[in-house]
Specification:
- The chain is of the alpha/beta class.
- The protein has a single domain (20-233), classed as Uracil-DNA Glycosylase, subunit E.
- Helices cover 38% and strands 11% of the residues.
- It has helices at residues 3-11, 38-51, 71-74, 81-84, 95-98, 120-131, 166-182, 193-201, 217-233, and strands at residues 21-22, 59-65, 139-145, 148-149, 187-191, 208-209.
- It has a four-stranded parallel sheet with strand order 3-2-5-6. The protein has a two-stranded antiparallel ribbon with strand order 1-4.
- Helix 1 (3-11) runs antiparallel to helix 7 (166-182) and helix 6 packs parallel to helix 9.
- The longest helix is centred in the C-terminal third of the chain and has 17 residues, at 166-182.
Length: 234
């Protein structure tokens, strides 16, 4: 593994001091993880995912924060357990699209979701990019806030999402910049206006596409297709 990538993943241990932020790579979810090895499994997933793209990534697609149905259990932004476990193959998404030479494992307890958690955003983003015949090792998915903000008052506890606070967004800036330095030649694409605002705060000008959540799937597909078609034609 690359020392730089290892150092970056090690730095992710330092999540914000605000309450109710889950760290997939260093925290155990006692109510939902299958066992205490879950953080190490998620860490290995992320290491293989980033390492196998360090010399090939052309695009960095960045959204706002990790969700409980995605990176919370997979360890990878906008990527669900169900993708890693091969249960989205009917939609053309396979585990080897995420990483190779390492067997992915589930980290959520099977009683929660027999086939693992499935995130609509993950399925839409991966499915759209693969349908455009983009090499999966030419794009990296990430979040402006790399951890998972959840709602403590929600009946399902950590199985919930919330918008990051201003403090959490600003706290995450150095981590986002460190991530971008891992892929210095890649083009950045913001997924959603909230992420775009964060990137603008860092004086990073980049194209913005609609977030696929809340009815935005069609617009996301149209906009990402238009951008990639134009970029590859130039």
């Amino acid at each position: 593994m690359s020392n730089t990538i290892q150092q970056f993943i090690k730095s992710l241990k330092n999540k914000p001091s605000s309450d109710h932020v889950f760290n997939p790579w260093y925290d155990c979810d006692p109510d939902n993880d299958e066992n205490t090895e879950a953080p190490n499994i998620r860490k290995a997933h992320l290491q293989y995912y980033l390492e196998q793209r360090k010399d090939s990534a052309r695009y960095l697609l960045i959204a706002e924060a990790i969700g409980y149905q995605g990176g919370h259990f997979s360890g990878i932004a906008m990527t669900s357990e169900r993708i890693l476990l091969g249960h989205q193959h009917l939609k053309g998404i396979h585990p080897h699209h995420v990483f190779q030479h390492h067997t992915p494992k589930r980290t959520s307890h099977p009683d929660k979701r027999p086939k693992g958690f499935s995130e609509p955003t993950a399925t839409i983003v991966w499915g759209s990019l693969l349908q455009m015949q983009l090499n999966p090792y030419e794009f990296v998915l990430w979040n402006a806030v790399p951890w998972h903000p959840y709602q403590p008052s929600h009946p399902n506890g950590m199985l919930s999402n919330r918008t990051p606070t201003s403090y959490e967004l600003e706290y995450s800036w150095p981590f986002l910049l460190s991530f971008l330095k891992l892929f210095p030649s890649s083009r950045v694409i913001a997924i959603g206006q909230k992420c775009a605002a964060t990137l603008q705060s860092l004086r990073l000008d980049c194209p913005v596409v609609r977030h696929p959540a809340n009815g935005g799937a069609t617009q996301f597909r149209e906009q990402i297709y238009a951008f990639l078609s134009k970029d590859n034609a130039s």
